[in-house]
Amino acid sequence: xxxxxxxxxxxxxxxxxxxxxxxxxxxxxxxxxxxxxxxxxxxxxxxxxxxxxxxxxxxxxxxxxxxxxxxxxxxxxxxxxxxxxxxxxxxxxxxxxxxxxxxxxxxxxxxxxxxxxxxxxxxxxxxxxxxxxxxxxxxxxxxxxxxxxxxxxxxxxxxxxxxxxxxxxxxxxxxxxxxxxxxxxxxxxxxxxxxxxxxxxxxxxxxxxxxxxxxxxxxxxxxxxxxxxxx
Length: 231
Fold this sequence. Notes:
The chain is mainly alpha-helical. It has 11 helices and no strands. Helix 1 (8-40) runs parallel beside helix 5 (94-118), helix 6 runs antiparallel to helix 7 (135-146) and helix 8 runs antiparallel to helix 11 (197-230). The radius of gyration is 20 Å and the shape is globular. The N and C termini lie far apart (48 Å).
C-alpha cells in the first residue's frame, strides 16, 4: 500500500477531491445559513414544504439527484444550455462535481445551523431590539455569532459528505480521470481493476485520515467558539 504514496496520480485525486469539497461547502454554506435562519424563524405557510424540499437529497437515491442536475444543468438542460453558450457549462468538469457534492451536502449543513438558531434565547433578541438594533444588525451582531458552533459543525459535516459523494457525481459529471474523478470514484474504479487493490487501499487510508482530521478540527473550532462566547 505504502509504495503508492509516491504516485503523483494518487495525490492528484486527493487534491481534486479537496478542491471539489471546499468549493461545494464554500458555495453551499452561505445559502445554508440563510435557509437555517428561515426555517428556525417564526412559522409561515409552506415552511414544512420548504423543509421537505431542503432535506429531499437525503432521502432520494443519489442517482436521481444526479439525473435531476443533468436535466437542469446539462448541456441540453433548462439552465445548462444557456450557461454552455456562455462557456460556463457544469457537465464533465470538476466545478460540476462540486455542484453535485454541494447539493447532496446541503441538508447536512442546514440541519445543525437551524438547530443553532432555534436554541438561541429570545430574551437576547428582545434586549437587542430595545437597544435599537434593526433586523439586519440583529442577525449579524447577535444571531450569527451565537450560531457559530452550529455553522462550524454544518460546514464540517458538509465537507465530509462532499468528500465522499459518489452517486450524484458520477451521474452528473461522469468519472473522468484528472477532471471529475474524486476519491470515491477513483476507489470504485480501482476496485474493479484486477491489480487496483493496493492503490484503492491507499486512497481509502487517505480518506479515513482526512475525515478524522476534519472531525478533530471541528471539535477544536466548536470548543474554541463556545469558550469565547462564555467569556
